[in-house]
Amino acid sequence: MSSIAPSSLQAAGLALPATPARSATPWAGWAALAFTLLIWASFFISLRAGARAALAPAELALVRFLPAGLVFLPVVILRWRRFASLPALQWMSIVAGAGLPYFLIAGAGMRHAPVADGATLIPGTIPLFVALIAAFTQGRAALSRWPALLTVVTGVATLLAFHHGEGQLAQGYGLFLLGSLMWANYTLSLRHSGLSPIEAAALISVVSLALLLPWLVMHPPLGLMALPARAWVLHGSIQGLGVGLLSTLSYAFAIQRLGAQRAATVGALTPVLASCLAWPMFGEVPDGATLAGMGLILAGVLWSQRPQR
Description:
Blueprint: H1 4-11, H2 27-52, H3 57-78, H4 80-84, H5 88-98, H6 100-109, H7 115-138, H8 146-163, H9 167-193, H10 197-218, H11 222-225, H12 229-258, H13 260-267, H14 270-282, H15 288-303
Helix pairs in contact: 1-7, 1-13, 2-12, 2-14, 3-6, 3-10, 3-12, 5-6, 5-9, 5-10, 6-9, 7-8, 7-9, 7-14, 7-15, 8-15, 10-12, 12-13
């Protein structure tokens, strides 16, 4: 899900860090980006599979944060002074927006709505929320890409207008939009913190795992232990290994080889790939309203990537 950070900042009219020179042979960058895109799409597949199996979001969160929390624990120990120097509100925004609270909200939303809707609403509306938060804190200049943002709003309105009478979908949409708002706040907080990708991943994973420990004492993960081996492989490879460890590194590598703008633009294809995966796995075929809303939101995100003259 880290795909949206660069595009969100651009959509809000905020400057991106200088991009290293691109490699003369960018095939490795494209391979890393394709791998990252597959992980991001699979993230929503895993959430939906857990919901369909009546697996509590907190149990799935254990799969997500336990391996990463243990691997990144030495980073937190070695750099604790760096983390201690962050304002409390800043590091809490980072953890809440991309850690356990966000995961639980996204997982709860996926219990009420199909993959296509969640994979569209969460990543697709992050640029909108980033721009609104930046406008509130920094002024109207953050809304300089308002036509692209208006296109995103139109896409969200399309989804809500045609599905508002379906109670479970409406509840899922509300949770998805809340998760998007949390991730937008995380995006801005991370930018201002100056943390490296490894430091951010370490902070998010270790603190989220620490928050899970009291829950584990009171609620043993019986549903998780009852899963068949195939489900363990699915969730472990996607959440624990892919999202928790590999996607951060592969996306950073893709940015280094291809540039932030190109990498972020391709990242907007996440909902399309997630929907394609959900069709054969869950039999979820997007209806016309979903396709129209998805198209508008994707168009707005891609429009926001265009350089300003």
